[in-house]
Amino acid sequence: MSNQLPVINLMGPTASGKTALACELYERGNYELISVDSALVYREMDIGTAKPSKAELERYPHHLIDIISPLEVYSAANFVEDATHLVDEIHARGKTPILVGGTMLYFKALLEGLSDNLPSADYTVRAEIEAKAEREGWEAVYAELCAVDPLAGAKFKVSDKQRIIRALEVFQLTGQPITKLQAEQPKNLPYRYSFYNYALMPDRVELHQRIEKRLEIMWDIGFLNEVECLMNKYDFDENLPAMRSVGYRQAIDFLRNSDRSSEKHREMQDKALFATRQLAKRQYTWLRSLQEKHKFTTYLTAQQAQEDLRNCHG
């Protein structure tokens, strides 16, 4: 009998139904829920992140929701530290943790560990890289990466903007390629856990329909008002990590830089829809990458998963 502590990982792209599934399991078993979502950590960002309502969170409490302000930074390393503490506390209470969300970088960090001693994000350096991209284009930034870190250049595409920024940031801060540092450094693997990985991966057409419906509801219940209130309260910088959440950048650009006509309003909604679909595409790619290294059970629908998970972990 293994002494490793069981941890259930429930992953899926945005709008796949994973949160509803986790809540259904919570109701029927001896579980606690931990959110694995880089947007839900932020307070006051509720509608645009599809955050469960206050009533839902009272009924189905989630750890790691509403823990920092939109001006703060929360990294994968922060997540692993917080999540491992929570997992241990949940097991000490005689329960099993269900980690549910769509931030695959966090799941990867938990499953595979993090390299030691890589520098933390430096937002001055990142802003400089993004400014160069604005001036010269992402092809020029990608060419710079290929020159200083050919291995990273071979792994990334021009469209992998966040990965390119991180690789160049590490090189500028350390003078060494990120691929070299990652190869040399040991990883802190959570060996005391036994992970059970489940993925909801709906049909793309169905998922796109769900995404469109979710965004329609978000606009109807006041997403734009939420963004305007945040802009009035905080001195928002578009380079803040909080602003990577899909929809927020498009809404800020509309409120700051457009004439707010119905045509521009429709254009903003279309951009947010496109960005959300691109997010889902990246999440599918991350999931397939994780499935190459780890054992997974995959479901097309939450309904398919309910009975199976209940039987496995009930």
TrEMBL record:
ATP binds at G12, P13, T14, A15, S16, G17, K18, T19. Residues 37-40, 162-166 are annotated as: Interaction with substrate tRNA. The gene is miaA. Belongs to the IPP transferase family. It holds the Pfam family IPPT. It catalyses: adenosine(37) in tRNA + dimethylallyl diphosphate = N(6)-dimethylallyladenosine(37) in tRNA + diphosphate. Catalyzes the transfer of a dimethylallyl group onto the adenine at position 37 in tRNAs that read codons beginning with uridine, leading to the formation of N6-(dimethylallyl)adenosine (i(6)A). Its EC number is 2.5.1.75. Its cofactor is Mg(2+). This is tRNA dimethylallyltransferase. The keyword NADP does not apply. It comes from the Bacteria. Substrate binds at T14, A15, S16, G17, K18, T19. The record marks T103, R126 as: Interaction with substrate tRNA. Signal peptide: none annotated. Monomer. Keywords: ATP-binding, Magnesium, Nucleotide-binding, Transferase, tRNA processing.
